[in-house]
Amino acid sequence: GVSTDLSVTGKPAQFGRGVMQDVSDKLLQQFVACLELQFAPLESAVEPAPQIDPIFARFNSDAAPGCAVAVDRPGQPVLTRAYGMADLEHGIRNTADTVFEAGSVSKQFTAAAVLALIDQGKLKLDTNVRTIIPELPDYGRVITVDQLLNHTSGLRDWGAVLGLAGWPRTTRTNGQKDFLLIATRQKALNYEPGAESSYTNTGYNLLTEIVQRVSGKSLAAFSHETFFVPLGMTHTQWRDNFRRVVPGRAQAYDWKDGGYEQDMPFEDAYGNGGLLTTVGDLLIWNRALDNGTLGKFVTTKLAERSTLRDGRKLTYGRGLFNYSFKGAEEVAHSGATAGYRAWLGRYPAQRLSVALLCNAANADTGMGRKVAALFLPGPPDAERNASMPQGLFVDQASGTPLDAARFRANDSRIVSNDRVELTGRDGNVAVFLRTAPVEASAVKLADYAGLYASDEVGAAYSITPGADGLTWRIRERPDFVQVLKPVYRDAFQGDGATFRFQRGAGGKVTALTVSVERARNVRFARIR
């Protein structure tokens, strides 16, 4: 089963001012509370545990990777299940104690470290990030530590920028210095800080750097001393060196061409992700949040919903999302890095927690919420049935066309015949305006042919006319070839990317901008 040992080794660590002054007393209180819950009457005569297995049926195989899941509920022992293989080459099965990578579930641990430093008076939420990391560009607007925590900084995601160079994450090694180099050469933001919300790993890698520079310790060392040892999270560490041997770690896989192949995160950049842990340790963490063990300031600020400059509330706090599920408050986060998938959810009113960790890229993190649904009494949430309007609608910020999948997945509102507003699960609002499409046969493809370069990306693009549109090639990446199809005037779309060409005097094309998810309007100048 999953260890729930909360014993402390070494000296008591300090979470903040007046917090964890006596770790032994606190842990004794937790032990007594656990005893009380252990002998409390069951809330339901129906045991939903057997219903968990069907959720993971396709991963319960000796020929496939799989998952581990654990449920912590009042009055009952921790329930654990494990499915599939941890290592396909050596025939090792997943268990409740298998170590997985937690993806962006890791962000709450980075946020907690920063909040602990704030609680100790070594940092403030409104601290200007450039006073700690002066090499960041001056965008004419202050970016605060809090805006890094809640994804309102406007900073482009470094992985998205790297993808524009033809090197999406997991295709080459990246460390903290690599991410910082990409961040420091960006000349523009996605938007003004505090005006919108856009999920960006850059902010959390910067927070890792801030912990190092403010505390004098790496995030890995700080977390170990401040959280992992005091809480008894004995299977948890950061992947700050991907070459380090980690006993009991599952290998990650992706399904391609009719079979599984390895898909590991070969990165030393961490804080945005990179937590190596078990489902049992994640439940220990959630129990600490439920019990306030991290201290009032850290516990409250992690889940507290953030506010934009115009007063709009976001569902994101600081490393955690705040949702409603089956009528219950849900504090949760999902994660995905390379072939690992993760989900950690907590329902404070019900004292229910679910931890899910998988080593298969085709695992749906929504399985974690399906498990939680078995233990929540409320009715299912209503499904969205919005009908997308006819015609072409374009994001006014990035130029990206609206598609039916995005329309259905968000809270969509048709404001007028020419305007659609989408509210994402993060609470951010995107505005789409009706735009006249173009006929492919009327587009003069030769106008756009040329060589374009960007210092921000560190790459050059060759654009040439093709049979079905423009052919996009990335120099120094000969295996990268993609077709861009015309959508509206001077705009083309590829796989996940929108190209908008800019014209100068006389109508000649002089530059282009590329927008992808998490990085808007990255400029390439025409050099030939």
What's a concise summary of this model?
The protein is an alpha+beta fold and 528 residues long.
Molecular structure report:
- This protein has 528 residues and is α+β, with helices and mostly antiparallel strands.
- The protein contains twelve helices and 25 strands.
- The strands form six sheets. Strands 18-19-20-21-22-23-24-25 form an eight-stranded antiparallel barrel. Strands 2-1-13-12-11-10 form a six-stranded antiparallel sheet, with helices on both faces.
- The chain is globular.
- Mean pLDDT is 91; it is low at 1-46.
Explain the layout of strands and helices.
Layout: H1 23-38, H2 52-55, E1 67-72, E2 79-83, E3 85-87, E4 92-93, E5 100-101, H3 107-119, H4 145-149, H5 158-164, H6 176-184, H7 201-215, H8 219-231, E6 237-238, E7 253-256, E8 259-262, E9 275-277, H9 279-291, H10 296-303, E10 321-325, E11 328-337, E12 340-347, E13 352-358, H11 366-373, E14 393-395, H12 404-409, E15 411-416, E16 419-423, E17 429-434, E18 450-454, E19 459-465, E20 470-474, E21 477-488, E22 491-493, E23 498-503, E24 509-516, E25 519-526
Antiparallel strand pairs: 1-2, 1-13, 3-4, 5-9, 6-9, 7-8, 10-11, 11-12, 12-13, 14-17, 15-16, 16-17, 18-19, 18-25, 19-20, 20-21, 21-22, 22-23, 23-24, 24-25
Helix pairs in contact: 3-7, 3-10, 6-7
